[in-house]
Amino acid sequence: MFVQSKNFIENHQGNIDNISVYGQDSNPTTWKMAKMNLAIRGIESNLGKHDADTFANDLHPNLKADFILANPPFNLKNWG
């Protein structure tokens, strides 16, 4: 989602340096891949210091954002 957002911003004459990217993932492998993917593309981000579940351990508790992209955890058992 972040990479496509970067492409959208650039395609609409926006400046990628004017955004801040925050996120987190509960899966340690996905979290590591996301950090690598963003770094390879030169997208500065804060995905937290470790993998974590946003419902049980919000790594950005004081964050106020203009826009939020979310991928619902429908593929996780007992997420509620």
Major sheet: order of its strands?
Answer: 1-2
User: Treating each run of at least 4 consecutive H or I residues as one helix, how many helices?
Assistant: 2
As a percent range, the share of helical residues equals 25-40%
> What is the radius of gyration?
13 Å
Describe the sheet with the most strands: 2 strands, parallel
Give the overall form: globular
Number of DSSP strand runs: 2
Distance between the terminal alpha carbons, to the nearest Å? 23 Å
What string, H for helix and E for strand, traces the elements in order?
HEHE
Uncertain segments are none
Category by helix and strand content: mainly alpha
Give the amount of beta strand, in percent: 5-15%
Instruction: Give the integer mean of the pLDDT values.
Output: 86
In short:
The chain is mainly α and 80 residues long. It contains 2 helices and 2 strands.
Q: Can you characterise this structure?
A:
This protein is mainly alpha-helical and 80 residues long. The chain has a domain of 54 residues. It is 29% helix and 5% strand. Strands 1-2 form a two-stranded parallel sheet. The radius of gyration is 13 Å and the shape is globular. The two termini are 23 Å apart. The model has no long low-confidence stretch (mean pLDDT 86).
